Each structure stands twice: as structure tokens, then as C-alpha cells.
Amino acid sequence: MIDSLKKYAKPFNSVKDLDPLIEAVGEAKYVLLGESSHGTSEYYTIRAELTKRLILEKGFSFIAVEGDWPACQSINRYIKGLSSSAKDSRKVLEGFNRWPTWMWANQEIMGLIEWLKEFNSKTNRTNKIGFYGLDVYSLWESLDEIVGFLEKNNSPELETAKKAYACFEPHNRNNESYAVSAGYLSDDCMKETLELLSTIQKNKWKFEDDQESSLNIEVNALVTAHAEEYYRTMVKSDSDSWNIRDRHMVDALNSIIKFYGNEAKVIIWEHNTHVGDARATNMKDEGMINVGQLVREKYGKDEVFIIGFGTYSGTVIASTEWGVHFEVMNVPPAQTGSWEDLMHQTGAINQYLIFNVHNCKEFSDTIGHRAIGVVYHPEYEHFGNYVPSNMGQRYDGFIFVDRTNALHPIALGPILI
């Protein structure tokens, strides 16, 4: 495999050197950009530059990310100049107050936000570039959004929304409390959330306006229903709750695509574990699916281009426990024999690789591929941070930064869990 890497991997010093990767995207309508951690500066900056080029050169329509829908709406409204939007990008990022705040409240993303705002102010496109969150965690925030909007518009659907809200109220906005109650005691709000989703979907046409209200309320209703299912399930099965989460991301994505039209072209930012096709990893053996797999299955491999990211060593932003303050941690040299180690052995330089019909068989052996989460213990990473992967099938391209640096978070005050 080292010989194959020496043959096919190409060095790069800037995004301008990635022209062949942009060309390899071809006419694909779905470009998925990964990352092997949520706390690495280079992953954000390189993805931002690739995103700009995809918008300018290939006409991509919107960005969808591994983030909460309500918080990402603050970015979407800002870059589109919709009413009630914030006055500057730092104020926008104050909306990302759920732990881990650093995923989106960071200096690296600010530049992209300002670029998108300027692009939208000058474009003649019917639909301006959007920025949307696909994740499932914002149960309470999405309920707040729905109830607030329906109250403001004195809508008949408000009664159904209030029933759902009242069902969750005893748990005082605590996800773990609801998870235990619903998962172990069968005291759940499934009926109420599904009724709310059905009501909103039937009546979303009433809310069509130039503020994207119909899309906003529909996806918030999707989040409410799927978050209820996610928290109810997570206390019993990690794999089932994972699948609920990734299916929700694709459902939310499909709602945005319908809003933009079937010709929409989509850029997705998520962790490698979500975008790299699960069928090419040991996730398949555990009955797990992910966004990359589902998008390929729905739209066909020719319409989808997935780019993974990785590093040999460096620093990263992460936490030692869920919900505690972040730290700058050292990323140790990659495990011997892993994908990142082999790429480093070909030369301690930044490289990119395009997988195609001519070379994917040379990268078909299963090999460990590093994945760093928001909770990270570098001293123990060899025991659980490497995903067995068929790299030639998992991705269409790969970007390797030999030594990476920690992300630069923006302090937003107290951390909310």
C-alpha cells in the first residue's frame, strides 16, 4: 500500500494545488467533506476554501453541517440578510451555546460566514447560498422555535405544539431525564411529537414566505420527532440511536433539497464517521449506517463525491469528559500500520489522493483509520480511535495534513450542556 500511495498521492501546499480534486468532483451534486476530529484548524480552513470554489466554479447551492438546526439558522439568516438577523458574525456565533460550542463558535468559521454574506449580497441567483444544521440534538430549542412561531402567527396548529411541549415539560429541558423516563419507564412523548410532525407537514404551505418559515418550522418538527426517538432509544442501544441520528440528518437534508429544488447541489460538512460510507467499515458488522452510505444509496455513487480528512500528529481541541471545558491536546503519532502512518511514511508532507476505478483495488485492504471525537484521551487512543476501513470504497478522495493544529474557539461565556 505504501508503494500505491507513492504512486497516486500528490503533494499540496495550498487549495490551489487541489485543482485535480475539484475536477474529479465532475457533475456530482452532493459533495461530502469530512474531518477526523471536530477540533482541528486545518480541516475547517481547507473545507472553507473548497466550499468557496465549489460555489464559484460549480454552482453549489447550500452548505449543510453537523450542527443544530436552530443555531445554524442564525448563520443562514445572517448570510442571507433575512429579518431579525444579527449584525456581525461574532454575534451570530453566540447562538452556538450547546456543548461542544467550539465546533462552530470558532475563528476559522467566521471568515467563511463573512464570505458567504458578501457573495449573497452580490449574486443574481434566485436562491441565495444557505447554511443549515442537520443534527438531531436540539429537542428543546426546536420546540421553542415551533411554539414561538405559531404563537406569533396565532396559528390553529399551536394547540398540538403545546401538547407536545407540555409532555416534555416535567423533564426540565434535561435530555438524560427524558431518556431514562422514556427508555426504561415507557413514559414517552412519541405520540405527541409524531402528531405535531404530521400536523406541521400537512399545513406547512400556510407558512410560506420570504423568511423561509415553512422550511424552518418543518425541520424543527422533524428534529422534535426524531430527537424524541433518539433520546428514548439511546439508553438501550448505541447502534440504534446512531442510525436514528444519521437517518434524521438525511431526512433534514431532503427537506432542504425540496425547498431549493431538485437541481440543488449540496456541500455537507461532517465527521468522517458520518460521511465515509459505513459499508466500507466495521460499522456494517454492527448494523450501523451513516449519511455517506444513505446519500450514495439514494442518489447513486456517480452523483456523490466524498472526501475524507486525516493527520499524522499535531494538536486538537477536545475534552476529557462530556460537557466539561475544552483543552488543547497533543495528537500523538498515528498508530503503526494505520492509514495515517502509511501516508506519513510516504513523506512527511501534506498530500491528497483521488480514488477511482483504476486504483481503488490497490486500497481495498482493511486498515485502521483514526477518528477523534469531542471526548478524547490521547494516551488511550490505540485502544479505540481507529476504524477498520476499506479506504478505496469509503471515500472518493482523501486530504492528508501531516501535522495539524488545534482549532481556535471563540469564548462565549458559560458552557451549556
Automatic annotation (TrEMBL):
Keyword Methyltransferase: yes
Any one biological process term the GO annotation gives: methylation
Pfam families found in the cross-reference section: Erythro_esteras
Alphabetic keyword roster: Methyltransferase, Transferase
Molecular-function GO term, any one: methyltransferase activity
The name this protein goes by in its record: Protein-L-isoaspartate O-methyltransferase
Annotated organism of origin: Neobacillus cucumis
